[in-house]
Design goal:
Elements lengths: L4 E5 L2 E4 L5 E7 L2 E5 L5 H13 L3 E6 L5 H4 L2 H7 L3 E4 L4 H5 L2 H8 L20 E2 H7 L3 E5 L8 E5 L2 E5 L5 H7 L7 H13 L7 E4 L5 E2 H24 L5 E2 H11 L7 H20 L3 E6 L2 E6 L2
Parallel strand pairs: 4-5, 5-6, 6-7, 10-11
Antiparallel strand pairs: 1-2, 2-3, 3-4, 8-9, 9-10, 11-12, 13-15, 14-15
Helix pairs in contact: 1-3, 8-9, 9-11
Amino acid sequence: MFMSLVRVSGNIHVLEGRTNLGVITLGGDDCLVIDTGINRDQGRKLLNVLKSVGLKIKAVVNTHSHADHIGGNKIILERSNAVFYSSSLEKPFIELPLTEAIYLYGAYPPEVLRKHLIEAEGVSVEDVRRLSNEYPFLRVVELPGHSVGMIGLGVENVLFSADAFFPEEIIVKYRIPYHLNVQEALKTLEKLNNVVLNDYDVVVPSHGKILNKEEARQLINSNIKAITEIRNIVLRNVDDGLPLNELIKRVLRDLALTPQTTINYLLIVSALKSYVAWLVNEGLIGLAVSDEELYVKLKS
């Protein structure tokens, strides 16, 4: 459920909710929206809130392609003249969200998995660089890792950081914060800490409360710590050789983590495979096929 429209700074507002949505007024009754929520209902609520304060959507920037960020796209397209923008790497997934379900499942998924939690309704998307050329005050910040081409947006002294990092309650609840490419996600966190945050005073993550710079740094460090701990647990559980599925079971046992739903299981497995890929890339472990299974073993 959305709360009220919160003014953060100047012409920058946030519609707080399960996914925080950015609203940048552009002059007159036009505004730019950052992400649209998880489904049509959230998109409808966004439109109604903006209508109540005399605003209409001129442009939407999707930070990335996950359903809780693009779920309201279709209804906004149907009820406005908004143009949608994203990074070029996220564009294919936003236009055809089925691809997200395919890579999570590893094949064309059964209908039961093609729900709004992992598959939204697609819309056509333009390259976000066109929008930043039109509005030079918009700074596009590349934040890959959580998804392949996730971006954040900087506006004046405010950074919309998308899903680059998560609040403590999500880390505690889920134990393995989801990143498609955790190796890149860690680099993004380090870039935020060491470079990007120097230019901003306020940070708006997609999930959790609005933060000042110091609060954001503390939370980024917590996310770095969580990633490092999971990496160490994965590496510790690799023996001379064991099936990948057995490695995943061992990690889940160490974390006392029991997937409750099919979608939850697929997300956890995808996240853990990203750690395996990271360790393979660093030459610490290797992959091989044995006894009709994919095995993982330490490199000598």
